[in-house]
Amino acid sequence: MTPATGPRPYWLAAIVIAIGLIWIWGASSLPPATRYAGIGPRGFPTFIGGALVLLGIILALQISRGMSFEAQEAENADAHAPVNYAALLMVLLAASLPILTLRTFGLPLTAMVIFALVARAFGSRKLVKDLLAGLILGSLAWLLFDRLGLQLGQFLPIAGI
User: Fold this and answer.
1) For residue 4, which of 67, 72, 69, 70 has the smallest C-alpha distance?
2) Which candidate, 23, 54, 55, places its Cα nearest to that of 41?
3) What are the tens digits of pLDDT across the range 98-132?
4) Which of 104, 115, 161, 119 is CA-nearest to residue 138?
5) Which residues pair with 34 in a beta bridge?
6) Which terminus of the chain has a lower count of CB atoms within 10 Å, N or C?
7) Type and span of the H or E element at 147
């Protein structure tokens, strides 16, 4: 990070803080604790929201001190490369897909499609392998949560399983 010479991006810190506050606000509607565990569903989202607010404040302090944020050589990033909007839209679609498909298709199939979309956005051209990897990871995640006693709905609701 080097001292900035142009306009300072305080908007970036404001967005991080706003996202943290949204997490905290959303967590406030969850139950604080359960009968069988000391920490309830409110704990983790509240922690993440608080961490985001803290990171946003730290970012604002760095911006006020004149720090600029550039790609480091180790990142192998080209700051002048054009934005790949197709890849960006594919990742946004993958991020919003669970809202639309999780109850109908279940976690394994939803994870399968999400994994394949994100892999494609990052340049993978092995669709069958990506779909299979997503299906395996989604199935393992569902089985793990089921084993822990957390309900994620049916395994494959579309098939009645």
Assistant:
1) 67
2) 23
3) 888 888 999 999 999 999 999 999 999 999 999 99
4) 115
5) none
6) C
7) helix 127-147
